Amino acid sequence: APARGCYDCHAAAKKEYAKKVVHAPVAKNDCGACHLSHGFTQRLVLKKAPRDLCLECHEDIRAAKPAHAHAVMDTETGCLGC
């Protein structure tokens, strides 16, 4: 039998991510772009530390040299810190 889709069990997450700006993987229902499959462990696991994961697609943020760098970007949490 084929594996169940993420939103089969996580319908509330689908509604939560239906925001004004939708990340491309979310629009494609491609949860695996950022998350590992958790199986029965029921723990959401990211493929990498949030900062590193975000910067894979948002390299422009790393390249930008803002006058006032956000201190949170020096932590593993990165973008999710805000």
Structure description:
The chain has helices spanning 6-9, 11-16, 24-27, 50-57, 59-63, and strands at residues 35-36, 45-46. By secondary structure, the chain is mostly helical. The protein is elongated and about 45 Å long. The N and C termini lie far apart (40 Å). The model has no long low-confidence stretch (mean pLDDT 80).
Distance between the termini: 40 Å
Number of strands: 2
Mean pLDDT: 80
Low-pLDDT runs of 5+ residues are none
What structural class do the secondary elements suggest? mainly alpha
What is the share of helical residues? 25-40%
Please trace the helix and strand order, writing H or E for each element.
Answer: HHHEEHH
> In one word, what is the shape?
elongated
Tell me the fraction of residues in β-strands, as a range: under 5%
Summarize the biggest pleated sheet. 2 strands, antiparallel
What's the Cα radius of gyration? 15 Å
How are the strands ordered across the major sheet?
A: 1-2
Number of discrete helical segments: 5
What is the structure about, briefly put?
The chain has 82 residues and is mainly α. The protein has five helices and two strands, in the order αααββαα.
Key features of this structure:
82 residues, mainly alpha, two-stranded antiparallel ribbon, 5 helices, 33% helix, elongated
Topology record:
Blueprint: H1 6-9, H2 11-16, H3 24-27, E1 35-36, E2 45-46, H4 50-57, H5 59-63
Antiparallel strand pairs: 1-2
